[in-house]
Design goal:
Elements (H helix, E strand, L loop, with lengths): L20 E4 L5 H12 L3 E6 L3 H14 L4 E5 L7 H13 L4 E4 L14 H26 L4 E6 L12 H20 L4 E8 L10 H12 L9 H13 L8 E4 L8
Parallel strand pairs: 1-2, 1-4, 2-3, 4-5, 5-6, 6-7
Helix pairs in contact: 1-7, 3-4, 4-5
Length: 262
């Protein structure tokens, strides 16, 4: 017997953030932390996944719980582990008893020039950027289908246009783009699935002087002539997760128009 995630509803209930729970993978640093804070301000409880950033995770959870007691929980898992999806799912249910929103944000990123790329690089980049989100989404789908749930995947403009010397990462993000569209079809009508494709938001940590030159070249191709902020991405995620009940299967580029010049 096949799995049934989304029985046909006679009436689609209105989504409410009252007591709703969002899972955010990679949700304790950088863009993930801003997404967590934004959804928390909207009234959701948040289950924050992290892999190795234990201290930032605890600090963020303490801050959010200080604003609203019992509203943030932590779960540690490596998305390369086949059991990670179940671990994250179970932690959210144990903490909040429900799952309304899933944000697949966690991502590994590093260059893989073709001549230097290895199977280990392939496995690592696909694990966090494509395989992990798919199996976590599948695991959470029955719970998301109990209400009009939403999944938002953090893709990348380089899942649409490849980044030089980053072929494996670009392919992994392209897989996540197709995953977004495929699951939007397969999990409808009770679960919406969309993606946000950031452009130049936060530079990779530890950039060198040559990296700064590359940054200037990138910004010259951005029509809005400035770098975006984590708040720009978090706002787009919140829109797709909470405020767009008739939107599914879409990829929203938040890139200052950079795709126009790629």
């Amino acid at each position: 017997m096949g799995l049934s995630f989304c029985p046909e509803p006679t009436v689609v209930p209105e989504f409410s953030t009252n007591a709703a729970c969002a899972i955010i993978t990679g949700g304790v640093r950088r863009i993930g932390a801003e997404i967590a804070r934004t959804l928390h301000r909207r009234g959701l409880s948040v289950c924050l996944h992290y892999r190795g950033s234990e201290q930032p995770a605890q600090e963020l959870a303490d801050a959010l719980n200080g604003e609203r007691a019992g509203s943030a929980a932590l779960v540690q898992a490596d998305l390369a582990d086949p059991g990670a999806g179940q671990t994250i799912h179970d932690a959210a249910l144990e903490a909040f008893g429900r799952i309304d929103v899933l944000i697949n944000n966690a991502s590994a990123f590093y260059p893989t020039p073709v001549k230097q790329a290895t199977q280990a690089h392939w496995d690592d980049l696909f694990a966090s950027n494509a395989r992990g989100p798919f199996f976590l989404s599948r695991t959470c789908a029955p719970e998301l289908a109990r209400r009009p749930g939403a999944i938002v995947n953090l893709v990348d403009i380089h899942g649409l246009v490849p980044l030089k010397d980053n072929s494996v990462y670009s392919m992994a993000k392209a897989a996540l783009v197709m995953q977004t569209r495929a699951l939007a079809k397969d999990l409808a009508p009770m679960i919406r699935v969309n993606g946000v494709a950031p452009g130049s938001i936060l530079w990779p940590e530890g950039e060198s002087d040559s990296g700064e030159e590359a940054q200037r070249e990138i910004l010259q191709k951005v029509p809005l002539q400035r770098q975006g902020t984590p708040a720009d991405i978090a706002g787009a995620v919140a829109f797709l997760a909470l405020d767009a009940p008739y939107v599914t299967g879409q990829i929203l580029a938040v890139d200052g128009g950079r795709l126009l010049n790629m």
